[in-house]
UniProtKB/TrEMBL annotation:
The keyword Signal does not apply. PROSITE patterns: HTH_TETR_2 (PS50977). Residues 28-47 bind DNA. It comes from Pseudonocardia autotrophica. This is Division inhibitor protein.
């Protein structure tokens, strides 16, 4: 029961921290404690410090973002269709979720504890994409898996920062690049 209460409190704190970050409000531990109705010491015990809180928020947002992308990849039997669906899902999710957009683009409204680069998100996306490719194409050399996964992840982030077409166009283009790397012609 205590673990459940702790998990619920953690989720509530992260929800409020996300609201503050998206609104561009300063995410101070005293203000967060006040809004959640707990002591500052409770927050410090759970997250360590403001950087720990920011890291937990980034980890949660990244996980949710990548879960959606991975579900899109896994939801299509055809490799080209899977990549189109995944890239499209990433672009749409980022457009709908202001925290994800801010994390990926380094939006100034997000506290500096989130970082200005998207390196950790790209690395996590690359790992998930590589895992997908290993599952569906176990015959691929690891170098092709890594190249395709990293290229797709970086292209998607690039299009989030500086859009280069509609989500449908970008999804088709990224899928075509991935298929050229792993061997296969896009449809």
């Amino acid at each position: 029961m205590a673990r459940r209460a702790r998990d619920d409190l953690r989720a509530e704190v992260l929800d409020v921290a996300e609201q503050l970050a998206v609104a561009g409000d300063r995410m101070s531990m005293p203000e967060l404690a006040r809004r959640v109705g707990v002591s500052r010491q409770t927050l410090y015990s759970e997250f360590g410090d403001r950087d720990g809180l920011a890291a937990a928020l980034v980890l949660r947002a990244t996980g949710r973002f990548l879960d959606r992308i991975e579900a899109a990849l896994d939801g299509e039997p055809d490799l080209h269709a899977a990549w189109v669906a995944a890239v499209h899902a990433a672009l749409i999710e980022a457009a709908r979720n202001p925290l994800v957009t801010a994390l990926l683009t380094g939006d100034a409204a997000v506290p500096s504890a989130f970082g200005t680069g998207s390196g950790p998100i790209v690395a996590a996306a690359t790992e998930r994409a590589a895992g997908f490719l290993r599952r569906v194409r176990p015959d691929l050399p690891e170098s092709d898996v890594r190249l395709a996964a990293a290229t797709a992840s970086r292209l998607v982030v690039s299009h989030l920062v500086l859009p280069g077409g509609t989500p449908e166009q970008v999804a088709g283009d990224v899928a075509a690049v991935v298929l050229r790397i792993v061997g296969g012609a896009p449809r």
